[in-house]
Amino acid sequence: MLTMAVPIAVLDCDLLLYGRGHRTLDRFKLEDVTDEYLLSMYGFPRQFIYYLVDLLGASLSRPTQRSRAISPETQILAALGFYTSGSFQTRMGDAIGISQASMSRCVANVTEALVERASQFVHFPEDEASVQNLKDDFYGLAGMPGVLGLVDCIHVAIKAPNAEDLSYVNRKGLHSLNCLMTCDARGMLLSAETHWPGSLQDCTVLQQSALRSQFEARLHKDGWLLGDSSFFLRTWLMTPLHIPETPAEYRYNMAHSTTHNVIERTFRTMRSRFRCLDGSKGTLQYSPEKASHIILACCVLHNISLEHGLGLWSSPTVGQIEQPEEEYEHMESLDSEADRVHQELLLTHFS
C-alpha cells in the first residue's frame, strides 16, 4: 500500500493544495482576461497563444493516468510564463490554478513538444527561389553577395552538472552551454545546435558541428556563411580581414560587420524575450540535456514569433550572462582554396 500512496500523493498535489473549487484554466476562458494581462504575465498576445494550442494541442493531450489532467492551454501558459520570466513564480501558478511542481511538468511537456517540431520551424531554405531571396535580403543590407546565413555562438548559463565535470565551465568560470546558431537577414534562425559544452571555443564547436558537415558536403551550394574572427576562413565561411589595408579590404570589412551585426541583434532579441536564457533570474536549473532542449524550444518560439510579426529588435536586455570573449589571435587560414575564394570576392565585388 505504501508504494501506491506515494505516487498518488504526487500526482494529485494540485488537488491537495487547491481543492476542487480552485479556479483553473479549464474553468475560465482566455477570452476572460485582457490582452495586456496575457502580455504582462506570459509574454505573448492572445492569437499567438491560440496558434500554439492548435500546433501543440495533440501532443499535450496524450493519454494520462492522472485523475486530473492539465489542459493544453494551461500547459502552454505555464511554459510561456517560465520561458519569458526565467522563474516558476507563485503568482503565475496561482493565476492558472496549478502548483509549482505541475508548472515544472508543464514546461517539460511543452518543451518536448516544441523540440519535436524544431525541424519544421528552424531550417535552411531548400528551393532555388527561397535561396535566392535569402541572398537578396542579405545583399540589400550592405552589399555583401552570396550570403546564405550568419553564424555565431551564444552562451547560456546552466547549473553545474557535477563537481567533477569541468567540460561545461567557460572562460569566465561559469557553467554554460555554448550554442551555435545561424540566422537570415530578418533574424529568423536557420540552424540551432544548443548542446555544446561551455568549455569549447566557438571555432571548436563549429568544427564538430552538424552545420559544418552540411556545408562541407556542399548541401548548400553557391554561397557562404558570414562568421566573426573567432572562426577560421573556409570556402563556405567568410570572416573579417584581421588588418585591412586597401580600400577594397576596408569596404569588405564594413559590409561584413554591418551584415553580421544582425545575428548579434538576434541574440539580444532572444535574451530579451526569453529571460530564462539571459541569466537575470539565475542559471537554468536543469541537466545539460534538458537545458539544451529548453534553449531549442525558445529558438522555435523565436521563429514562430517572427512569422507572426512579433519582432523585438529594440527591447533592452538586463542582467544577462556575460558572454565569454574568445581569446584568439588572428585565425590564419590553412585553406588555400578558401583564400582564393576570399580574394576573388574582394576583387569582384569590393575593388
Characterization of this structure:
The chain is built from 14 helices and 5 strands. The protein has helices at residues 2-11, 13-18, 35-42, 46-60, 72-85, 90-96, 100-116, 118-121, 128-142, 202-207, 210-216, 247-273, 288-307, 336-350; strands spanning 147-157, 176-183, 189-197, 224-226, 237-238. A 5-stranded mixed sheet has the order 3-2-1-4-5. Helix 4 packs across helix 5 (72-85), helix 5 crosses helix 7 (100-116) and helix 7 (100-116) packs across helix 13 (288-307). The longest helix has 27 residues, at 247-273. The N and C termini lie far apart (82 Å). The relative contact order is 0.13. The model is unreliable at 1-28 and 314-319 (pLDDT under 50).
- Annotation, overall tally of beta strands: 5
Tell me the span between the first and last alpha carbons.
Answer: 82 Å
Mean pLDDT over the residues: 85
Question: Major sheet: size, sense and barrel closure?
Answer: 5 strands, mixed
Q: Helix count?
A: 14
Estimated structural class: alpha/beta
Share of helix, binned: 40-55%
> What percentage of amino acids are in beta strands?
5-15%
Outline type = globular
Write out the strand line-up for the largest beta sheet, numbering strands in chain order: 3-2-1-4-5
Rg, Cα atoms, Å: 23 Å
Q: Low-confidence stretches at least 5 residues in length (pLDDT < 50)?
A: 1-28, 314-319
* Order of helical and strand elements: HHHHHHHHHEEEHHEEHHH
Protein name: Putative nuclease HARBI1
Domain DDE Tnp4: 151-303
Keywords: Cytoplasm, Hydrolase, Metal-binding, Nuclease, Nucleus
Subcellular location: Cytoplasm; Nucleus
